[in-house]
């Protein structure tokens, strides 16, 4: 699950459906026990609904997807450093690869945490100094006390990560919200471009309110104020309940539908689909809702033309969360940009097409080094 505007309605729909299946199963079994429903079929049906609520994912995965040779895991090793921030949050930063390698800082999207970079860490850390961090409120980074989840807040956190990355100029790689906060970083800290920052890699991201660059953008823009924003505020208010609904959706397998629709193209493996759903379900719905509300104010169109350093724009050909047209515009307006399209690839092409993605990052980074 990627907590983007496109997913808000799906999250609630599948969550409520999951509660209804579990509640319905319990009710049927209870009524059978009380003698109100007569017949073994009611007992079997009720028990099946309860069992599906807690184990349906195993059947769904076995039927829908093949097993891969290298399935992702929530892998955390290497050197760890924690940075205390003025807003009360603490940022966890992890380092992989040779200390003298070209540093690449990876900023993940909204919903997962830094373990989403499983493949990138394995495929790039042989030569590069791969640095990943958890956005505060997700993973092992604590929440900001002032409840600020704006791109500006995360851009300032990114500057703190850049400060501990070593002496070499870094390459900033951002996926989805990670790319958005990278653009904000360029606006807030232009003095770092060409000095502390050698290049950018913007992956399946956008330059504006993601509602405007999503599939069905016209409909979503019309629904933003009357429907999407109230649902997000309700999510904040009922965060523990929504979290329970999300985990029920994960256990019964219905969350896979949301993850599949928003992130993949059907070419992902069983483990990739399950891992993407699992790490997304870990995030607090209240935190994710606040961050999504902040995205509605995101606007960096004017920043693109001011970024005069090499940039690589990567997009999945079938991305519906941030459609390829957004990446094409960024490639056009960035002064030194090139575009790579992952085919087939969705919003989670960094996982589904991980080898092609790593090759594109490696080739661009080696040109930066040269």
Automatic annotation (TrEMBL):
MF term (GO), any: hydrolase activity
Does the keyword field hold Transmembrane helix? Answer: yes
Positions of transmembrane segments: 7-30, 42-64, 231-251
Keywords in alphabetical order, please: Hydrolase, Membrane, Transmembrane, Transmembrane helix
Q: Name one Pfam family in it.
A: Abhydrolase_1
A single GO CC term, please?
membrane
InterPro entries named in the record: AB_hydrolase_1 (IPR000073), AB_hydrolase_fold (IPR029058), AB_hydrolase_sf (IPR050266)
Key word Protein transport present in the record? no
All copies of the AB hydrolase-1 domain together span 103-207
The source's domain of life comes to Bacteria
The protein depicted here goes by the name Hydrolase, alpha/beta fold family
Instruction: Give the organism, scientific name.
Output: uncultured Synechococcales cyanobacterium
């Amino acid at each position: 699950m990627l907590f983007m505007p496109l997913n808000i309605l799906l999250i609630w729909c599948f969550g409520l459906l999951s509660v209804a299946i579990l509640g319905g199963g319990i009710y049927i079994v209870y009524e059978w026990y009380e003698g109100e429903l007569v017949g073994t079929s009611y007992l079997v049906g009720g028990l099946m609904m309860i069992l599906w609520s807690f184990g349906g994912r195993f059947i769904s995965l076995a039927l829908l997807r093949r097993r891969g040779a290298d399935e992702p895991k929530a892998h955390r090793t290497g050197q760890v450093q924690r940075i205390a921030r003025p807003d009360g949050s603490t940022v966890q930063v992890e380092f992989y690869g040779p200390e003298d390698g070209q540093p690449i800082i990876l900023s993940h999207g909204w919903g997962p945490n830094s373990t989403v970079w499983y493949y990138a860490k394995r495929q790039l850390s042989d030569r590069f100094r791969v640095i990943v961090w958890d956005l505060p409120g997700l993973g092992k980074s604590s929440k900001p006390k002032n409840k600020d989840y704006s791109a500006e807040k995360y851009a300032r956190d990114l500057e703190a990560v850049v400060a501990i990355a070593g002496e070499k100029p870094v390459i900033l790689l951002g996926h989805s919200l990670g790319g958005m906060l990278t653009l904000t970083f360029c606006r807030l800290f232009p003095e770092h471009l060409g000095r502390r920052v050698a290049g950018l890699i913007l992956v399946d991201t956008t330059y504006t309110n993601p509602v405007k660059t999503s599939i069905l953008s016209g409909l979503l823009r019309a629904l933003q104020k009357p429907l999407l924003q109230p649902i997000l505020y309700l999510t904040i208010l009922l965060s523990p309940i929504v979290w329970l609904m999300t985990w029920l959706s994960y256990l019964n397998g219905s969350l896979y539908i949301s993850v599949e629709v928003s992130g993949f193209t059907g070419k992902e493996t069983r483990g990739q689909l399950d891992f993407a759903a699992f790490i997304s379900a870990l995030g607090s719905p209240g935190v994710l809702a606040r961050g999504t509300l902040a995205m509605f104010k995101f606007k960096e169109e004017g920043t693109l033309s001011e970024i005069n350093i090499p940039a690589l724009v990567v997009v999945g050909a079938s991305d519906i969360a941030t459609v390829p047209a957004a990446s094409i515009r960024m490639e056009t307006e960035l002064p030194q940009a090139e575009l790579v399209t992952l085919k087939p690839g969705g919003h989670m092409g960094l996982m589904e097409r991980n080898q092609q993605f790593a090759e594109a990052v490696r080739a661009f980074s080696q040109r930066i080094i040269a």
